[in-house]
Design goal:
about 0% strand, mainly alpha
Length: about 100
């Protein structure tokens, strides 16, 4: 993966929020339902789902577990390419020499 595929002008929190919302939509899970199931408020989740506030690892883990997807599935660069390349690790993910 080349570094050119990562949009460095857009905050990562927004890209992650986009992926979480897309995964939720595929499962027809609303922010209200997520709040009910996690015990956290709807405004709490709304701020994260809009990218206003970054998700923390525990939040991503909770959402991923509920959706039955790996946490890494939320780290995309607009669709097809994952930020993390499991074969070569973090260096390859950002276009760096391993």
């Amino acid at each position: 993966m080349s570094a050119e595929t990562i949009d460095s002008t857009r905050p990562a929190r927004e890209a992650v929020a986009d992926e979480v919302r897309a995964a939720m939509a595929r499962r027809r899970l609303t922010g209200r339902e997520l709040a009910r199931r996690t015990g956290k408020s709807q405004p709490y989740w709304s701020r994260r789902l809009t990218g206003e506030v970054a998700f923390d690892v525990d939040d991503l883990s909770s959402v991923a577990a509920y959706l039955e997807v790996p946490v890494v599935s939320f780290f995309r660069d607009g669709g097809a390419n994952s930020y993390y390349d499991g074969r070569a690790g973090q260096a390859a993910a950002y276009g760096l020499a391993a």
